[in-house]
Task: structure prediction
Amino acid sequence: MHSSRRDFLRITAAGVGLSFAIPGLEPRAADRRGDERAKSFLTIWLGGGPSQLETWDPHPRTRIGGDVKAISTTIPGCQISDFYPHTAEQLHHLSVIRSLVSKEGDHERASYMLHTGYRPEPTLVHPSIGAIATHERPEETVEIPQFVSLGDATFPPRGGFLGNRFDAYRILNPGERGQNLVSLVDQDRQTRRLENLSILSRTFARGRQIKAEQTLHQHTIDAARRMMTSDQLKAFSVEHEPKPLRDAYGDNAFGRGCLVARRLLETGVRSIEVSLEGFDTHTRNHEGQAARARTLDPALSTLLKDLADRDLLQSTVVLVTGEFGRTPNMNPLEGRDHWPNGFSCLLGGGGLVSGLVIGSTDPEGTAQRPDDPIEVADLYATVLHRLGIEYAKEIVTPIGRPMKFCSGKPIERLSRS
Result:
């Protein structure tokens, strides 16, 4: 059976549990800027369900508003929570959607929905949008994983029916080189190990050359070694970044994750998710949301400014979201519970229209649906369209079931073309 070079690489990547491609002859992605770059997808994942009222859709001085105040932003007429003064100064890079709707109010099911655009079902695992982007738009010059999850996400994005090789490569402690990407022994010992492995491989192949080639065993080793010795691995480290910049992002896992994300984007990595957990505030909502904001606000605002300053925002679709919002009404423990009936996200970059405010929620908290509701599937059709991917493309899953990447339609207001 004939296998193309790319087929070999994909099979090889599956063998080591990673998603990557070998370098080609095109200019390095890191050398391209603005419209010349292929588009990447960056998700800032706020795990647990951030409150829309304490983030991007405050209703101060109302019955449901709580103690939060509203501040002006660089989008005329748009106010957000006073927990986010730095993000307010960078908000013009994005648009605000205040009317996302979903039917999933359970953390795991809603995370699935907000990663894939589909509700969970027992017979099929849908791929995350990041996995689709990596599958459809592999970057030939990138030698490191092309789908990376930074941070300790409770429900990390998956490859679904595209295969495990499109699962996100996880970095639990961003800022350090990725686990399994660097040798755990010194060079001499590594060389001896590889020499011994080579002897075993040749012994196995003796008299069964065709079978040995079909296993792609040696190809797998060669590809893994090429990646482990790639200069692009430096993108996972932040130690050489200026200290003032590191401080601006924040000296914590999330801040370092956002800085690593920028470095990975600069290298040409196709899909990245940076996660910040802890928004599940069933008790003492105000204090809990404020605590998360102290980490999110400096990192997100610095990331947006950094991407814009480096001319990377035009080639990066940025989505800031969690799995749902929180109830307008407080519970007896001064917390807010799960609320999929009208919550907020930020979306922009990649050539999307910025500075829009889409949808609104009832300031009295009595309406069960927001004005101008936006379905999750439409959100992701917009993202895929902007990434240059045929969002309604139908492929046959391993069990023979035809399935579209996305069942929604792009939000025309956010698309220039």
User: Anything to note?
Assistant: DSSP finds eleven helices and 15 strands in the chain. Residues 18 and 225 are 13 Å apart (CA to CA). The two ends are 42 Å apart (CA to CA). The longest strand covers residues 94-101.
